[in-house]
Amino acid sequence: MHNVKKRKDSSGDWDMFSKRLKRLLRDAMRLCGRRKSLAVSKYESLRSGIERRLTNVLEESWKNGEAKRLVKRLRRHRQELLVFLYREGVPSDNNHAERMFAMGW
Asked: Over the Cα atoms of the chain, what is R_g?
């Protein structure tokens, strides 16, 4: 999303699209971090809310070409996108993999 804003077409509704998507992902990662401190029913309710918000973003008719491209990709990989909310121990980022790559593993 940073590359689109810097180098590509960030016109039209890109700002709204990227703002909503970033907020959604940030909230999902925050929820993952709170998993152990929440009752199961509360966690599942909040997780369902994240899923609904994702559905809304993916179903919206975006005008920006880069937003459309990213939505298509997110739809294709939706099952993997929020897997960290369903499986304990699955990280919400790939920082570990990036560190291992940087170390030459």
From this structure: 16
CB-neighbour burial class of residue 67 (10 A; exposed 0-12, middle 13-18, buried 19+): buried
Domain holding 39, by residue range, is 2-102
pLDDT, tens digit (0-9, with 9 covering 90-100), for 78-97: 998 999 999 887 877 666 55
Q: Mind listing the pLDDT tens digit for each residue in 46-55?
A: 999 999 999 9
| Model-wide pTM > 0.90 | no
Q: Is residue 34 a contact partner of residue 88, using CB atoms and an 8 Å limit?
A: no
Number of folded domains in the chain?
Answer: 1
How far is C-alpha 43 from the geometric centre of its chain's CA atoms? Answer: 17
Residue 17's closest CA among 72, 66, 79?
66
